[in-house]
Design brief:
single chain, four-stranded antiparallel sheet, binds 2'-deoxyguanosine-5'-triphosphate, 12 strands, binds calcium ion, about 375 residues
């Protein structure tokens, strides 16, 4: 017998800020803000995340730090710079614990993972609710963090269930309730419906997921193309067959830094990117990756950011190849843009673990 799937999405609450609470328990009842400081002036930069007390003052991901400070004036708010290494350590620990509960775990970001628990639950959703409570309790006891869990018959429903009640939430949507659960929600709750698609659908008279689910699929295909049209149709009907796949390996490794002064000078830029390349390369080498794609990232003085990349014919693990390609990408970029640059970054991606590909003899024998 094929069991109906039981899929969970676990998402840690106000993750970076909660990690800060963990090592500073005394600040738990204060507004906490974690931000990326660009290093220019004391308050330049943006908020990465904040705890729920700070959010009640309108302080959330993406807003400028000076604005957060203004909103929190007169409170005993505490501000931290992002400490990515520390959050990564905590993430590794909690992901390790989560993995013991599932047949497969698919990590989708530093604080979020899907769990396939079908066989553990024997397809039973009542059991899954208690199981999720146990997972939450275990992580609270072992690590001290709270998380929110959504449970559903697939990843799509689990994700929306998870988003529907935060923090410290637990939402269960049984297969027979899935379409009813989605029906009243606005279409942009579906992955892949951004601002543009949202507006387009609105013009077509589609606002809710229920309206989308009833919309003629052929017309959706005519407007959005076959792949997307079918995807929207299925998603709105709570159909999603994407498996929970172990995605253990990083997709990219990158490092960004702020220049000592704004510049358009290739030599100065390459001095910085060479430093960044060393750091990136160290991690790539530690993980024993070969890579195929090399990218640069630029933030201009007008704060507009750009990236450029190049994909090699063959995977490599050579540091000099990174440096050479970063130079070429910058030469081209500087010829196109006359603005001074404020921050730069280097990224490699397209990883494989095996040795750089050699043409196999067998490939000549069809
Ligand atoms: P939540 O899940 O609503 O309780 O709050 P978070 O903070 O866990 O939000 P989530 O799950 O979207 O993001 C996980 C972490 O990723 C978050 O703690 C900080 C980081 N992050 C999220 N959004 C941004 C952003 O806009 N900029 C930067 N730099 N980091 C972000
Ligand atoms: Ca989160
Ligand atoms: Ca998340």
């Amino acid at each position: 017998m094929v069991l109906g799937r039981v899929v969970m999405l676990a998402d840690f609450d106000y993750f970076f800020a909660q990690c800060e609470e963990l090592r500073n328990p005394l600040i738990k009842d204060k507004p906490i803000v974690v931000g990326v400081y660009s290093g220019r002036t004391e308050d330049s930069g943006a908020v990465s995340t904040s705890n729920y007390i700070a959010r009640s003052y309108g302080v959330k991901s993406g807003i400028p730090i000076f604005l957060a400070k203004r909103n929190l004036e007169g409170t005993d708010a505490v501000f931290f710079p992002v400490d990515h290494d520390y959050y990564q350590q905590i993430s590794d620990r909690v992901m390790q614990i989560l993995s013991t509960y599932a047949s497969s775990l698919e990590q989708v970001s530093i604080d979020e993972a899907y769990l396939d628990v079908t066989s553990q639950m024997e397809g039973n959703f009542e059991k899954a609710y208690i199981y999720a409570q146990k997972i939450k309790q275990d992580i609270k006891t072992q690590v001290g963090l709270s998380l929110t869990v959504g449970i559903g018959p697939n990843k799509l429903v689990a994700k929306i269930a998870c988003d529907s009640q935060k923090p410290d939430g637990l939402t269960l949507v049984k297969p027979e309730d899935a379409t009813k659960f989605l029906a009243p929600l606005p279409v942009d709750r579906l992955l892949g419906v951004g601002k543009k698609t949202f507006t387009r659908m609105e013009q077509m008279g589609i606002k809710t997921i229920e309206e989308l689910s009833k919309f003629d699929v052929q017309r959706l295909i005519a407007v959005f193309g076959k792949t997307l049209g079918l995807y929207f149709h299925n998603a709105a009907n709570a159909i999603d067959n994407e498996p929970v796949i172990f995605a253990g390996e990083a997709e990219s490794i990158s490092k960004i830094g702020t220049l000592k002064q704004d510049t358009h000078d290739l030599t100065l830029l390459l001095q910085k990117t060479d430093e960044l390349t060393e750091i990136v390369y160290k991690e790539v080498a530690e993980k024993n990756y070969s890579f195929k794609t090399i990218s640069i990232y630029v933030v201009n003085v007008d704060l507009v950011s750009k990236s450029r990349s190049v994909t090699l014919e063959q995977s490599t693990r050579d540091k000099e190849v990174i440096k050479r390609n970063v130079r070429v990408l910058f030469e081209k970029y500087l010829a196109e843009s006359s603005l001074d640059i404020r921050r730069v970054g280097v990224k490699v991606s397209g990883f494989s673990k095996e040795q750089p590909q050699q043409k196999q003899l067998s490939s000549f024998f069809g």
